[in-house]
């Protein structure tokens, strides 16, 4: 009987040991599953954040695209719209976006090419740049002053100024440089001598 009890005890101890091993294995598996679930949850949260960032970027791109479409489709050639745009620009502070900078550069290139064409077409015109706006009333005398100060033969030349004006007629508040002075001389030979 004692042997039987011993064997039963051994069997009981073996069952307890196996039961403890089984329980620890199950607990380890649950812990591993919980850790993996936490990692999956973190990955899900990261993906959710990235998705929100992508959605924000898409919305920003749509907004930029609609602004570009509005700029492209805006009727800038209509004088009444230009007046309204000028009034709006006076009230708003100008923002320097890359798109505006590109447009300003394009406008500057067009103005320069038109100016060069106009100067070639009107050979008797002299364009003076960089004269401050304060000297507005002296536009006719500006050429005479420049010629007498800088050229010794300028005193001998009898300059006849047909017309002197600033261009463009209206001052652009966004432009930092002073308007150019156009001086029209009746003879192209006088311009060549200067």
Automatic annotation (TrEMBL):
Residues covered by the L1 transposable element RRM domain: 123-193
InterPro entries, sorted: L1_RRM_dom, Transposase_22
Protein family according to the UniProt entry: Belongs to the transposase 22 family.
Membrane-spanning residues: none
Region (Disordered): 69-108
A family per Pfam: Transposase_22
Protein name: L1 transposable element RRM domain-containing protein
Biased composition (Basic and acidic residues): 77-95
Organism taxonomic ancestry: Eukaryota, Metazoa, Chordata, Craniata, Vertebrata
Species per Swiss-Prot/TrEMBL record: Pipistrellus kuhlii
